[in-house]
Amino acid sequence: MSSIRGALLFSFAERYALIVIGLASNLLIARLLTPVQIGVYSVTLAVMSIAQVLRDFGVASYMIQEKELTDEHIRTALGVTLVIGVGLAVVVAVAAPWVAVFYSEPQMRELLWLGAVNFLLLPFSTISLALLRRSLAFKAVAMVNLVASLSGALTSVTLSWLGFGPMGLVAGTLVVSATTGLAAWWAQGDRRVLRPGLSQWRSLFKFGAQS
Question: What is the Cα–Cα distance from 87 to 98, expressed in whole angstroms?
Fold first, then answer.
């Protein structure tokens, strides 16, 4: 019971710590960037969010609920998320010039190109976090999220201060994804590097389609 209370306490503390970090960084960024720059980033983020809907495909939930999770399941989960990630990255990168023309904002092209890299990083953070949650390592999950959010906030604020504009905000999201993946992998203890695979793709796609 005490372990459950501890996990709930960590989850509570993580939630409000993330709010504080987000609020502090947003207040600083609002002073460093112009309304136009923030608007360009917001529209870019909205375009990226459309692709984000398809990114996970229920892979994290699949890994957590699978009764007997084997290395083949993990390899398949990584393989599927990488295929989806690469596909979305290519689509966003190819569509970037047309999106920039549609919104009459040339900078959106570079922002979307940089943001597309995020789809190549997210599969690793998705798998690592899912394994931590499956093992009920809520304290580790909280610490990973806090470190990643703080790293991303510092990156965004620093680059905004240095004059990179909305590009610094996009770079901050990349730092969050990279830090999450690396920190979650390190927190697992069993730091193996498994190669991607697709041997269990039928069961994963069945679950993902329903999800």
Answer: 18
How far apart (Å, rounded) are the C-alpha atoms in residues 91 and 40? 20
pLDDT of residue 200: 72
Residue with tokens 């690396």: 182
CA distance 18 to 22: 6
The pLDDT of residue 56: 66
What is the Cα–Cα distance from 9 to 13, expressed in whole angstroms? 6
Output the six-digit token pair for 49: 């969010």
Closest CA to 152 of 181, 126, 120: 181
Closest CA to 63 of 120, 8, 128, 121: 128
The pTM of this model reads 0.85
What are the Cα distances from residue 60, in Å, to 70, 72, 115, 132? 14, 15, 22, 11
User: 3-class SS at 188?
Assistant: coil
Mean pLDDT score, 206-211: 68
User: For the chain, what is the mean pLDDT?
Assistant: 85
- Sequence spans of domains, the chain: 35-210
Rounded Cα–Cα distance for residues 177 and 127 (Å) = 12
